[in-house]
Amino acid sequence: AVADIIGAGIIPGGMEIMDNLSINAVEDVAATGCYPRDAGAILLVELDGLEVEVKTNKQRVADLCKKNGARNITTASDPETRLKLWKGRKAAFAAAGNMSPDYFVQDGVIPRTQLVRVLQEIEALSEKYGYQIANVFHAGDGNLHPLILYDNSVPGALEKVEELGGEILKLCVQAGGSISGEHGIGSDKKCFMPDMFSEADLETMKWVNQVFNPKGLANPGKVFPTPRTCGEAANAKQQIAQQLKDVELF
After folding, report:
1. Is the pLDDT of residue 1 over 50?
2. Per-residue model confidence as pLDDT tens digits over 55-72
3. Is the pLDDT of residue 163 over 90?
4. Rounded to an integer, what distance in angstroms lies between the CA atom of residue 91 and that of residue 95?
5. DSSP string covering the chain
6. Which of 184, 211, 224, 242 is most buried as measured by Cβ atoms within 10 A of its Cβ?
7. Domains along the sequence of the chain with CATH
8. What is the mean pLDDT of residues 218-224?
9. What average pLDDT score do residues 6-11 get?
10. Across residues 83-87, what is the average pLDDT?
11. What pLDDT, on the 0 to 100 scale, is given for residue 236?
12. Sign of the alpha-carbon dihedral angle for 102, 108, 112, 117
């Protein structure tokens, strides 16, 4: 797939990637006119520092991108053009809502050296489960934010999408990463903790937690898996549903 590089100019340093599905989604909504619809992906690169430093690094970035197959490089240093280049990235999540009635956002992190392989495997998972996945993420630190597009009004769709999201998290761990890049472990991800940590690790974490949170008042029911695995949690839900099948719910 071809890729285009868009330089956002002299603002805090970082790198963002948007795949082809995301590119077309944001162009449909934001109509920036600066995201090539036929590109396999775009890489937004921002540099900061002294003027001479940015000028030197901008050339180094351009050379590296060309060396690695970038088809086109666009740069901007004035505020108006910078804002236009970033407009699409900032509208990515809203654009996903324009493509689908619902979307499920996952959060994982992987080594940057594994980005290409993991994205290929996410694409394979998308084909396997039959749900489109738009990839918008922070390439600088390997923080992935795949958006799984689905329709919650379809019976069983959410459960399948949650299963797909779990497969992506497991993929992140297998690639040497983590099940959270920046948003932490809550009630949704806690059953994947054993995929990343041993029983001894989890037990040690619980000891530390009990020192500062002896009554369990801080984030109750989060972070630590209970039941211990996602499979056990799913079975528990089924057992509860069976017990309540004849009970009128409000």
Report:
1. no
2. 898 889 889 888 888 888
3. yes
4. 6
5. --EEEEEEEESS-EEEEEEHHHHHHHHHHT--S-S-TT-SEEEEEEE-S-HHHHHHHHHHHHHHHHHTTEEEEE---SHHHHHHHHHHHHTHHHHHHHH-SEEEE--EE--GGGHHHHHHHHHHHHHHHT--EEEEEETTTTEE-EEEEE-TTSTTHHHHHHHHHHHHHHHHHHTT-BS-SSS---TTTGGGHHHHS-HHHHHHHHHHHHHH-TTS-SSTT-SS-SSSSHHHHHHHHHHHHHHTTTS---
6. 224
7. 3-95 (no CATH), 102-243 (3.30.70.2740)
8. 86
9. 37
10. 83
11. 52
12. negative
> Distance (Å, rounded) from C-alpha 230 to C-alpha 218?
23
